[in-house]
Amino acid sequence: MTDWIHPDWPAPPNVRALVTTRRGGASSGPYSSMNLATHVGDDPAAVARNRALLRHELPAEPRWLEQVHGSDVVEGEAVRGAPQADAGVARTPGVVLAVMTADCLPILLTDSAGSVIGIAHAGWRGLVGGVIEATIAAMQVAPRDMLAWLGPAIGPAGFEVGGEVRDAAIAAQAAAAQAFVACGAGKWRADIYRLARLRLAHAGVGSVSGGEFCTVRDAERFYSYRRDRVTGRMAALIWLA
User: Fold this and answer.
1) Does a structural domain hold residue 44?
2) Which helix (H) or strand (E) holds 210?
3) How many whole angstroms separate alpha carbon 226 and alpha carbon 3?
4) Is 62 part of any domain?
5) Is 16 within 8 Å of 62 (Cβ atoms)?
6) In total, how many domains does the chain have?
7) pTM listed for this prediction
C-alpha cells in the first residue's frame, strides 16, 4: 500500500503535488520498496514497475533530472531526457516537475495565482550555491506572492557536519549561524530546514510551510543516504491541473 504525502500548504486548487515514501513498491532489499531511482543499483525492472505505479497518479511522465547538487534550473516544458540540473519551473498544465531525494530537501514553490510552479533539490551545497534564489528568479513572479513547502529531509538531530559546511553557509548568509549547534570535536548539527527558511525569507517569499519530517529517524517511511548509504530515492512532484 502506498503512503504518499500530500503537502499541507495554502496553494491554489489547480496546483497539485505529492511526495512518495519508501512504501508500496516492487523493490526489495535495501531499496524496499518504492525506489524510483535508476542510478542506485536497484533492479531496473523493479524501478520500472515503481515508476509505472507513480505514473498512474500523474497527468504525464515526470521531467526527471540528473541532480548534481548545483543551482541550474530547467524549463519543464523543454526537458528532454534527464538534463543535469537541480531545479525546474513550469507554466503549462500537465507538466510534472520532479526531484528525487534521500536526505536532501525537496522544495515546492508556486505563486498565489497558481500561474507557475517550481521545484528544487536542496542539499547544503545547493542552498549555499543559491538553488532557491535561482528557482525564484526563473519563476518570474514577485517573491512576496510565492508560497513554498519544505518536504521530507534530514532533521537537525541527524545532520552532523564539519566546520567547513558551517563556514560555507555563513559566508553565503551571515544569519545561517543560527542553524548550527556545536556538538563537539569541531562538529556541528545543521538544521537544513532553518537554512532553507532563512534563504526563502531573505528572498522575500511570503509563505513557507512544511519542514516537520526527518528522513534519518523515520526508517520505516523514508530512505536516508546518511543512515544507510545503499538505499533508494523518493520523489517530490508538482504540476498544474
Assistant:
1) yes
2) strand 207-210
3) 22
4) yes
5) no
6) 1
7) 0.98
